[in-house]
Amino acid sequence: MAGTGSGGRAADGQTLRWGIVATGRIAHRVTRDLARLEGAELYAVSSRSEGSARAFAEEHGFAASYHDNPSGSGYQQLFEDPRVDVVYVATPHAQHFEVVRAALEAGKHVLCEKPFTINASEARELVQLAGERSLFLMEAVWTRFLPATRRALEIIRSGGIGTVRWVQADLGFPAAYDPADRLWDPAAGGGALLDLAVYPLTWAVAALGFPAGLRAQGHLNQDGVDVQNTLALEYPEGAAAQLTSSLQSAGPGTATISGTAGWIRTGSPLYNPRKLEICGQDGTIRVEEFHEEAEGFIHELRETARCIRAGLQESPLMPWAETVQMMGLLDQAREQLGLHYANDARAVTT
């Protein structure tokens, strides 16, 4: 249940000053949508590099930039700035726990890029800390907030395709091997599972709920990073989901939700579909299209701002319990795949 908090500035209608942690590709994309958000001020950015921080600030119009130096990390300096109200964390996965914890300890509201953490233990710890500090915290699974996703769920929950019995979803692309790239770097939480499988899982869980069982198959490369995986989700009374994510091969990148009275298929890519195909019991297929001025991140940003202004600690659309439970599913899959990261050692000792 979402709570009420007193941390940070959160008055109705008040401008929220945003800080951005990290300056990679996803940070640029999200910031372009943030610039369109009503009541948002692009205030500060941090990076390990002074050049990256200043270039990002100049490109997007931030008032302040911070970088690593002898006095401390760039993100810690950003968190110490009392003018920052809320931060968006766009670092590689393995750094999420450390950075989000520091932000919460400094009294900042947080929107953290997916996957929320490396494992469920880290996720539980951050949720507990946010609760103790009366701060807003949310995983940035932008797909959950998109108009197409919300419309698909509306159809499903209204019985428009009957009882859902089967979900199939895939996401993959052939990524050139580069051990220095975060996709392939085990120290950064690399691999197809944590980077891509969140999206097929999002559609399966939205349509069928969390499964009673999970079976994972896949292949690890010489660095111990998964290059491809298949997840089979098992539900009572035989409902099922088959999900694939890959850094080796391209696929249609769609989700199909099949029910006893019809089906829904998303456009591609399933993480940001602009259309839905809906087939009713009579076999007639209709198409619903969704047009966006912005790229699509604005919906999760708007929800973040709405919740902060309302004094909520968690979003009813992306509650903490579901984030922790999703990380638990990924933990199960990793255990079956033999996929382990350095962060797991900390979880064992705490």
Describe this structure in words.
The N terminus is likely disordered. 33% of the residues lie in helices and 24% in strands. It is α/β, with parallel strands linked by helices and 350 residues long.
Structural domain tally:
2
Strand content: 15-25%
Q: Return Rg in Å.
A: 20 Å
Within CATH, the superfamily of the largest domain carries the name Dihydrodipicolinate Reductase, domain 2
Global outline: globular
Number of helices: 11
Reported CATH architecture of the largest domain? 2-Layer Sandwich
Structural class: alpha/beta
Question: Which strand order do you get reading across the main beta sheet?
Answer: 8-9-10-7-11-12-13-14
Give the CATH level 1 class of the largest domain: Alpha Beta
What's the short version?
This protein has 350 residues and is of the alpha/beta class. It is built from eleven helices and 14 strands. Residues 1-11 have low confidence and may be disordered.
Secondary-structure map:
Elements: E1 16-21, H1 25-34, E2 40-47, H2 50-60, E3 64-67, H3 74-80, E4 86-89, H4 96-105, E5 109-113, H5 120-133, E6 137-140, H6 147-157, E7 164-172, H7 192-196, H8 198-208, E8 213-220, E9 226-234, E10 240-246, E11 255-259, E12 262-266, E13 275-279, E14 285-289, H9 298-310, H10 320-337, H11 343-349
Parallel strand pairs: 1-2, 1-4, 2-3, 4-5, 5-6, 7-10
Antiparallel strand pairs: 7-11, 8-9, 9-10, 11-12, 12-13, 13-14
Organism: Pseudarthrobacter quantipunctorum
Domain Gfo/Idh/MocA-like oxidoreductase N-terminal: 16-138
Keywords: NAD, Oxidoreductase
